[in-house]
Design brief:
The chain has 122 residues and is an all-beta fold. Helix content is 0%, strand content 52%. Strands 2, 4, 5, 6, 9, 10 and 11 form a seven-stranded mixed beta sheet that branches. It has a four-stranded antiparallel beta sheet with strand order 1-3-8-7, with no helix packed on it. A hairpin with a 6-residue loop joins β5 and β6.
């Protein structure tokens, strides 16, 4: 499975970005997709996750109310709409896939994308 993340960029505080992650290669049903981020000097942290059907969605508290995760299974793609961006959102954002339910631990995911840089200036 290959994951291609895109949509990052340099924006000012308060702006919006829409990240995309397309899966290709060996794909399978009933897989959860998650977004993680890693800022310099910090551990990789869970941002949002969505299960296969979209019936289970989770956000970390710091992005709740400002972000929306969604997926299009026909396109094997997951999206992360991020609004009202803050400088503390600056990080490399990674998408990941695992079979079954959403988990917040990075170690629970089997496949990772290459990451897309999000930089928010104040």
């Amino acid at each position: 499975v290959q994951l291609q993340a895109s949509g990052g960029g340099l924006v000012q505080a308060g702006a919006s970005l829409r990240l995309s992650c397309a899966a290709s290669g060996r794909t399978f049903s009933n897989y959860a997709m998650g977004w993680f981020r890693q800022a310099p000097g910090k551990e990789r942290e869970f941002v949002a996750g969505i299960n296969w059907s979209g019936s289970r969605i989770y956000y970390t508290d710091s992005v709740k109310g400002r972000s929306t995760i969604s997926r299009d299974n026909a396109k094997n793609t997951v999206y992360l709409q991020m609004d009202s961006l803050k400088p503390e959102d600056t990080a490399v954002y990674y998408c990941a896939v695992r079979q079954g339910a959403v988990y917040s631990g990075p170690g629970q995911y089997d496949y990772w994308g290459q990451g897309t840089q999000v930089t928010v200036s104040s």
